[in-house]
Amino acid sequence: MSSQRSDIRRSPLKAAAAAALALAALALGGCDSFGDRTGSIRPATAAAPAADADLRAYAEACRDRYERNPGEKAASIDYARALRKFARTSEAVAVMQAAAIKAPKDEQVLGEYGKALADDGQLAQAKDVLTRAYTADDPKWDVLSVQGAVADRMGDHDAAMGYYREALKIAPNEPGVLTNMGLSLALTKQLPEAERILRQAAASPRADATTRGDLALVLALEGKYAEAEGVGETDLSPEAARANVEAIKRMAISSGVPRRLTGVSDPALAPRSP
Q: What is the reported pLDDT for 207?
């Protein structure tokens, strides 16, 4: 794959900030989709390094190992996860599709293939693949969480919440699942509950910049601007955190949304039936 030889340079932190603003637009506009929000789909592990330079080096090493043995399970999974970290979703799909052709019944391969498809916006195919990534007697919390995110992006928020609850039975307090749940609640304008769930996620020592960015987003949507900036400054410069909050303010004003959204006091903001 010649396109995969190019350097990997996208900043996950900047991508997370941009994704937060994209979700703000969706929440303010009442859209029933996450859109192409890759941050809402989490890898099964946090093995990849967090620092941008280290992550690039890790991704290049994964690519080299994969190119020595295309389609091999472990190399394919590691490389696809690295590509997803940089939002190179179509390449991640191609990598996992090749692995799935070699091992069509391997549940771990199917799970990673489904995640890549979901990140790439191929929701119907992701939904189908993910149903084959575990059995009823051996469910996988990370796959259930992605199934929930796919259901959310397809507008079925009730089904999504069911997947998140099942995932949390297997992995209580898992920050990735809680973050997806919080985003689902935000999309249905249940902002106080979304804030509660995202605070729980952000309190985990395993929480990442995406989770904290989503908490800052919901706080800003509620009009808690100073607190949103404070949370944002954990991972961004004060100027960048302030700019994110200011952008959300402008979206709220242009959308005619009241300064403090509650999701319950205004009937127009109440949760909708799927």
A: 94
- Protein fold of 45-139: 1.25.40
CA distance 74 to 81: 11
Across the strands, what pairs with 138? Answer: 135
- Which residues are CB-neighbours of 249 under 8 A, at least 6 positions away? 220, 225
Per the document, the length of the chain is 274
Quick: pLDDT tens for 39-67: 344 443 445 665 677 888 989 999 999 99
Tokens, residue 110: 């199917």
Least confident of 43-47, 78-82, 133-137, 200-204: 43-47
59 CB neighbour count, 10 Å cutoff: 24
The residues spanned by each domain of the chain are 11-40+173-274, 45-139
Whether the per-residue pLDDT at 186 is higher than 70: the answer is yes
Q: Look up tokens 């804030």; give the residue.
A: 195
Q: In whole angstroms, give the CA distance from residue 171 to residue 113.
A: 21
